[in-house]
Each structure stands twice: as C-alpha cells, then as structure tokens.
Amino acid sequence: MQWGYRFVSGMLFLAAVIGMAFALYLEHVQGLVPCPLCVFQRVGLIGLGIISLIACLHNPKSNIMKRLYALLGSLSILWSVGVAARHVWLQNLPPDQVPSCGPGLEYWLETLPMQSVLQQVLNGSGECATIDWIFLGQSLPVWSLIFFSILLLVSLWQLLRKYKTAPIKRLRDKY
C-alpha cells in the first residue's frame, strides 16, 4: 500500500496534536511545570503541526511544493530533536556539573534580547536537569526525544521519497 502525501501530512499533524495534548495534560492536570527546554521543544512540535496541516489541506500537486512543506516540517521537528537531545544530556550530567538554576523563562523574555534568551535556554539550568516524570524507566525528555525522532524520520521520508509525476499535457493533445 502506498501512503499518499495528504495522508502522511495528516498523520504528522495528528501526531503533533497528540504530542501537544499530552504535554498540556502533564502541565495542567498532572501539575508538571515545563522547564525552558521543554517549552522550546514544544515550539518545533507546534511548527511541524502547523506546516503539516497546511500541507494536508493544500495537498500540492507539484513535487517541489511537496518537498518544500516536508523540508520545513523536517527543520521544525529537527529543532525539537536537538533541544530534547540537549535536555537528555543535561539530565545525565553528574550533579556537580549541572548548571545552577537561574531566573525563569518569563523573566528572561521580559528582560533580555531574544538571542540572549535562546543562549540561556540552550545552556540549560538546574531545573532542566531535574527528573520529575518517569515511564518505563525513562525520563520525559528521553521519551520526547524518541517521539520527535520518529516524527523527524517520517518527515525526512516524506521529503526524500519518490512521488508519481503527473503527465504533462501538451496544448496539441488538448484538441
């Protein structure tokens, strides 16, 4: 069975919605406050979701447009993969090497330029190294990294796979 472009884009959108719904469930129902790295992981997931929704609704005929949407989605979720990998790395540092906790993300956004906020967040802080949630022996950033990596692989497959080319209709064939 060949999965169509629209179907895969729709599945990527649905996966992004499910991922965000789970993140919001953990935040608002379970009471887990997201650290700055968690917030930045969500940015890439939301980006993939928006791009995949647009691709699904547009359902372009042009292979160039299909690949453009897939490239943008891949770059978006690659951001989440990178941030999640950094998060896992921070959680696995020895306690004496964990960066100290600083002011929260809201304070940084209010007082620092965006470039400094990005630098501060990606450097991580002590709160990012705290493990608050474990499932099957793995922390939430590990599960996020696995989830984002699967979405990245699907996005890259969508980018690199062969699409059927539509036959070119010539003007003389029309009459």
From TrEMBL:
GO terms for cellular component: plasma membrane. Disulfide bonds join 35-38. SUPFAM superfamilies: DsbB-like. One of its GO terms (molecular function) is protein-disulfide reductase activity. GO terms for biological process: protein folding. It is a multi-pass membrane protein. Keywords: Cell inner membrane, Cell membrane, Chaperone, Disulfide bond, Electron transport, Membrane, Oxidoreductase, Redox-active center, Transmembrane, Transmembrane helix, Transport. The keyword Transmembrane applies. The chain crosses the membrane at residues 39-57, 69-89, 142-160. PANTHER family: DISULFIDE BOND FORMATION PROTEIN B. This is Disulfide bond formation protein B. The lineage of its organism: Bacteria, Pseudomonadati, Pseudomonadota, Gammaproteobacteria, Moraxellales.
